[in-house]
């Protein structure tokens, strides 16, 4: 037992508590009914001391407490706090949390297409909104004291990540930055950059999960632990030891899967499958949920990397008769759903699949993905948090910040489509997904369950679960809008300097430091090699140069000779005819052979052979003396071949008949023995080209006459000289890498400015009136939109037609390689869309002239016309059922694209000249789009 404190000690402790309670942190802690973790206290103390902070901690660990403390500090100091998030759904959620805690009068929401209490001291917004405010010099920035950047690791996103860096670079130095990130492996590097551009920044990293996570594999009827349970069980590399039972099962099952039995045929395959299923199988989705329910592991989120897969999973559970709610729960679900969807017209409910969705919710089962109507997604989230939905089938977008923790997380597969190919998920993605398991304050432990699949590798899963390598990589690239805004505020020179402070350049420069040190070490080595190769008789470097020139010349002549021999052999093969008897000079089938087919493909012209089988030249089909019919290759003919004789191939010859092959081969051998040419003819080797080459003769003479040629240590010097040459070549390659990485962002900025200058958006450090218009247009196709305004492409369009054209600036079809041309509105809209594509072609050529490459994330992609007709019809007042059938997309996608279209129409309206038809019609188009499901879909 600890001794009781003395009166003096009790008094000192009381004084300390009183002092702590008097601090902002002490007052803040009293607002919560739970204690703060050490990393939260450390970060909050740094904030109160005036430092910026970077907090990197696992999902669900409570990072946002630090952001909420920044809100508390701002309100206490009478200053503003902006709380930024990467997605509107997260903004809506955070707005609700803060409004509940501090009052709706003190909290606002800005998400591009919605504004709620925009003058409040605390505003939740998407990061793009803050970027736009910074460039516009918005008066809302006055009095700003703190900016919280939630999910700051989003700056790795190759499409939107640059926005985070723009905000961090351009925020006034008086603003304290609070950066909240998932656990990343280079938090210190990111913190060093923040320290450079923002001043004093404390890096707080926590690897501790407040709720322990257990890893499992569900195989058939049995749930296996992924790792050995005994404490301290690690392999020789310090990694946690994989469950031996699971490894044994994997070996056994994989051997059974890949070593077929003697039985053959379809019936044998079915029998094998039946037997395999009796041992170990991949459980169905309904079986998984039923098993988790019986083990007390619900609520659960099952991640399926497919929207259609999520919807199918709900239907499979419904067909299986799963019911996870009692009657009281069903009634509560129906009441909440009817309340939240009251504004949706009855005629739209059927189109939206409302009744099927409601049936799943009443049973406690739902899908969650980007294709759902935002209102439906929000209802699912609310019911899940209340415990009325217990099984959610979701795509990975749910893992990005939305507060939906579960007791268990299930991963069906460890492979997902990344937009280009099916790829294994990364350790970072695995950590992000499984981080949802374990509800703080509710669960003692969380559970991550991976389903057994054929060819399952426990070591691979263990590697994903045990690795914490999730590096933050910058995706920053200058855009046209960024360039005109920067030049307008700072001029070209200062803008270049600002871009050099980006995290992208910081990382590039850091990599250059390591390469530069290697170059220095190489140069020291070169000095040593130079000394070792010195010869007292003369310049050994010059002597080695002659030897290398001789070697290179001989190699070149050898290559030329080989090419000539291959060409001669190919020409000889082309002259063969069916029935020719030849002697195959080399290869596995060397010897006598009868040509059955010449092997020159149809359509050959000018020595070009089409088709994969003929890319190396003719491939004759022959019958060998050993009765084999084989297709030969160019490698079998290193020297030209000519017909020794001819014989007739019977029309009845069947190459698949052993008897036919035997008879014809026997006739060929008989003819060869009679004629006396059964043995191969030896080709006389041609005189080597090097023997008659004057350059080689000159170099040999120069080498023999060089003073160093007579040195006793010549070959020893030569070895050192060869090492010198190799190291010098490697050093030059490193120097080229340094040159390519240094000032990369600034060089791209210069190319962007060159395009803008040629198009008269910039004149030196001056931004032209056209450039000021471009500064108000944000997005991937900012320059195309500006050119369309300048050329008056949209002047004669009505509101719905303008909406159709503007949709091409934002829409990107999920199947970019879809060969089916989209349906387009007729009349003026169709003509204007065609003109937009022509303008893009002109810009694309101009970018190519200036070395701007779209694959590097810079430049204008081709406008996508796939949403033009749905946008036109919706803006024209057509019903939801008609529009969705045209769009061929889920309601959620339709709403999302409409909201992005509304945003870009607002930009076009602001950028268009006063009193112009485009300005008026853009506002009318927004009114036409902002109705029905688009208007009531969500707060943000």
- The computed structural class is alpha/beta
Main beta-sheet annotation: 8 strands, mixed
Number of helices: 34
The average pLDDT is 81
Number of strands: 24
- The percent range for strand residues is 5-15%
Assembly category: single chain
Strand order of the largest sheet: 4-3-5-2-6-7-1-8
User: What is the percent of helical residues?
Assistant: 40-55%
Q: In angstroms, what is the radius of gyration? A: 36 Å
Terminal-residue CA separation: 57 Å
Low confidence ranges: 258-265, 602-615
Gross morphology: globular
Provide a concise account of the structure shown.
With 940 residues, this protein is an alpha/beta fold.
Please tell me about this protein's structure.
There is one protein chain. The protein is an alpha/beta fold and 940 residues long. Helices cover 50% and strands 11% of the residues. It contains 34 helices and 24 strands. Strands 4-3-5-2-6-7-1-8 form an 8-stranded mixed sheet, sandwiched between helices. A 7-stranded mixed sheet has the order 10-9-17-14-11-13-12, with helices on both faces. Helix 16 links the parallel strand 12 (365-368) and strand 13. Helix 6 packs across helix 7 (162-170), helix 21 (540-574) packs antiparallel against helix 23 (694-705) and helix 28 crosses helix 33. The two termini are 57 Å apart.
Helix-strand layout with pairing:
Blueprint lengths: L6 H16 L1 H6 L8 H11 L3 E5 L7 H14 L2 E6 L2 H15 L4 E4 L4 E2 L5 E5 H10 L7 E6 L12 H9 L5 E6 L5 H12 L2 E5 L7 E7 L2 E4 L18 H15 L7 H14 L5 H10 L5 E4 L3 H13 L7 H14 L5 H6 L2 H9 L2 E4 L5 H12 L5 E4 L13 E4 L3 E3 L4 E3 L2 H8 L11 E6 L6 H9 L13 H20 L3 H30 L7 H35 L5 E5 L6 E7 L23 E4 L4 E3 L13 E2 L11 H18 L18 H12 L8 H28 L2 H15 L3 E2 L2 E2 L1 H6 L7 H10 L7 H12 L17 H22 L18 H8 L4 H8 L3 H21 L5 H13 L2 H5 L4
Parallel strand pairs: 1-7, 1-8, 2-5, 2-6, 3-5, 6-7, 9-17, 11-13, 11-14, 12-13, 14-17
Antiparallel strand pairs: 3-4, 9-10, 15-16, 18-19, 18-22, 19-20, 20-21, 23-24
